[in-house]
């Protein structure tokens, strides 16, 4: 498993080509060799994104894209990922209209065709969980509806450790349940400050990361992508601390 950086962590610093180039250089200097492209400036072309990353010795392994692009611009999105050299095309969150008993079935109705087209291109549609996917609609959780409607070669899950914990789930249990669907995972920790749960660098909070990492060893996970949506200090410092902690545990 290779340690990478989810660029959403540094989203304020990747909105222009100049800032993106500088940021990728800083991330490469930390030791990261893979990244997820997310929340990047819209005016930076895919060719330039790939060039900057290649020059820094960084591979693009996953993206997050809008629901509209996945649904209505699938062919162009696949072509862009060919340019990026990226096999995993991700959706960051389920649009709100699907998150209820009346409309959950429409998610598969709408996204199955793009997912099949992505699979036919040799890539994989990836869904990133938050905590709401663990809400039960009747007898099934939202996440369970997705697992029923999409085959593993049509839908992968970008498992997020923090959000499973926030939902009251057992992170290692869900890693085991999803073991054949999680080529990419988001690692983020949960700490407590003044009685409130906060996001923290990996191994700086209260999640049992030694057990989490050991459980991931028995899955199809390829990429451990560090993400911290909200940082208490500099996001660059948080990414460095997470990398150092994972490297000390044997993951680079």
Structure explained in plain terms:
By secondary structure, the protein is α/β, with parallel strands linked by helices. The protein is 40% helix and 21% strand. The chain is built from 10 helices and 12 strands. An 8-stranded parallel beta barrel has the order 1-2-3-4-5-8-9-12, surrounded by 4 helices. The protein has a two-stranded antiparallel ribbon with strand order 6-7. A two-stranded antiparallel sheet has the order 10-11. Strand 1, helix 1 and strand 2 form a beta-alpha-beta unit. Helix 1 packs parallel to helix 2.
Structural descriptors:
alpha/beta, two-stranded antiparallel ribbon, 10 helices, 12 strands, eight-stranded parallel barrel, globular, 252 residues, single chain
List the helices and strands and how they pair.
Blueprint: E1 2-6, H1 17-30, E2 34-37, H2 46-56, E3 59-65, H3 67-72, H4 74-84, E4 88-91, H5 104-120, E5 124-128, E6 136-137, E7 140-141, H6 142-149, E8 156-160, H7 161-166, H8 171-177, E9 184-187, E10 189-193, E11 196-200, H9 209-216, E12 223-226, H10 235-248
Helix pairs in contact: 1-2, 2-4, 5-6, 8-9
In angstroms, what separates the terminal alpha carbons?
8 Å
- State the secondary-structure class: alpha/beta
Helix content: 40-55%
| Spans where pLDDT lies below 50 across 5 or more residues | none
Q: Describe the biggest sheet? A: 8 strands, parallel, barrel
Query: Beta fraction of the residues?
Result: 15-25%
Overall pLDDT level:
98
Helices and strands, in N-to-C order? EHEHEHHEHEEEHEHHEEEHEH
């Amino acid at each position: 498993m290779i340690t990478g950086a989810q660029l959403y962590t540094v989203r304020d610093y990747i909105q222009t080509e100049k800032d993106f180039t500088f940021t990728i250089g800083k991330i490469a200097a930390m030791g990261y060799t893979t990244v997820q492209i997310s929340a990047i400036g819209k005016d930076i072309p895919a060719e330039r994104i790939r060039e900057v990353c290649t020059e820094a010795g960084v591979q693009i392994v996953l993206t997050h894209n809008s629901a509209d692009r996945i649904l209505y611009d699938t062919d162009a999105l696949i072509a862009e990922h060919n340019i990026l050299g990226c096999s995993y095309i991700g959706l960051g969150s389920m649009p709100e209209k699907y998150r209820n008993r009346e409309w959950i079935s429409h998610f598969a109705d709408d996204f199955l065709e793009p997912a099949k087209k992505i699979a036919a291109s040799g890539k994989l549609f990836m869904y990133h969980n938050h905590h709401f996917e663990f809400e039960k609609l009747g007898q099934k959780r939202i996440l369970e509806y997705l697992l029923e409607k999409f085959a593993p070669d049509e839908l992968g899950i970008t498992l997020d450790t923090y959000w499973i914990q926030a939902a009251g789930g057992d992170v290692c249990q869900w890693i085991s349940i999803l073991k054949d669907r999680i080529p990419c995972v988001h690692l983020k920790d949960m700490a407590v400050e003044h009685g409130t749960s906060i996001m923290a660098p990996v191994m700086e909070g209260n999640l049992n990361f030694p057990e989490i990492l050991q459980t991931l060893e028995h899955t199809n996970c390829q990429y451990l992508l560090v993400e911290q949506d909200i940082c208490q200090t500099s996001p660059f410092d948080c990414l460095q601390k997470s990398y150092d902690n994972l490297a000390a545990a044997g993951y680079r």
